[in-house]
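Reply to dn_fold:

You asked what the input looked like. This is it:
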Amino acid sequence: MHDFLNPKSMVTPGMAGALVMFLSNAVCFQFPELAPRWAALLLSFALGGFVIAAAKLRYLPAAGYWLINSLIIFAVAAGSAGVAAKSAGVASTGATAFADFLVPSAVAQSTTLNSAVMTKAQLQAQLESANARLAAQQQQLLEAQQQAANADALAKQAQAQHQALLAQQAEEGQKAKQAATQNANRFFKVW
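and this is what came back:
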């Protein structure tokens, strides 16, 4: 009983719960498609697993301690989320308080009537700007197409030169064979 009722052992669930809330809040903020409660539960079990792995217990007691410790860590984390939500004046309970704490809701700014209504001149300026960007993009497209056509023409020219070179080499090889045959016949005449 001394191991459980001392200041050191009472700080451990609080620190573990704070760590779980810290990590699950960061993960769920970056990946909003994850449910905050499941992220916190998974992190609680992971942290509980690290603690049990360090203790090096047998399998059955380790599994029991792992389950209990992980649920305590989760309960501390969820409880701190509920306290934070209530202190902020949010009137929600249970899982919604936990979710609201992890993933805060977005609030739109109020607009005034003057800034919400655009004048005809502003709309005309935006239209002209968009048309200018479109014209520049069309010009870039035409330049790219011209460069592609030039590159294609150069490639065809290089291919034709390559074919002509191969034909010339074949012809020179044929002439060399004929010359060698004629020279051989001149030197080794029948007696």
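Residues 137 and 160 are 35 Å apart (CA to CA).
Hope that clears it up.
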